[in-house]
Design goal:
The chain is α+β, with helices and mostly antiparallel strands and 113 residues long. It is built from three helices and five strands. The chain has a single domain, classed as HIT-like (HIT family, subunit A, 2-Layer Sandwich), CATH 3.30.428.10. Helix content is 24%, strand content 22%. Strands 1-2-3-5-4 form a five-stranded antiparallel beta sheet, covered by helices on one side. The N and C termini lie far apart (30 Å). The structure holds guanosine-5'-monophosphate (5GP) and zinc ion. Guanosine-5'-monophosphate (5GP) binds next to strand 2.
Length: 113
């Protein structure tokens, strides 16, 4: 828990946010500024600032498999989806608590800007 971290505040419900999934390791909720009809974020409960400091292979795998399962719940598993993790400035990271974007529900372009 970091006092100044937006996603830690969501995890602690200091910022009330409707969760679409939670377990003991991760939570998931809809992005406030969706870039596609489905745009969810899978966020570990543990505060890790960037992928550069992600070392737990079980956690990395759990985030991806959670996204896969959520794609089924959200109805985009067969139509398809994209998983994105941004890192630091050039990667476009704006919230420094790692998160996996799950995007789908439309044909996505070749690159997300
Ligand atoms: P990043 O650019 O760091 O990869 O992604 C951060 C994402 O968090 C952005 O897509 C942004 O819209 C989303 N976001 C920022 N603040 C909030 C918030 O308070 N609530 C929710 N649900 N999403 C947020
Ligand atoms: Zn945090």
């Amino acid at each position: 828990m970091r006092e100044d971290c937006l996603f830690c505040k969501i995890i602690n419900q200091q910022i009330p946010t409707k969760l679409i999934y939670e377990d003991e390791t991760v939570i998931a909720f809809n992005d406030i500024n969706p870039q596609a009809p489905v745009h969810a974020l899978i966020v570990p409960r543990e505060h890790i600032d960037t992928i550069n400091n992600l070392e737990n292979e079980n956690l990395a795998g759990h985030m991806i498999l959670t996204a896969k399962r959520l794609s089924g719940v959200l109805g985009i598993q067969q139509s398809g989806y994209r998983l994105i993790m941004n890192c630091n400035e050039d990667g476009g990271q704006t919230v420094f608590h790692i998160h996996l974007h799950l995007l789908g529900g439309k044909q996505l372009g070749e690159l997300v800007q």
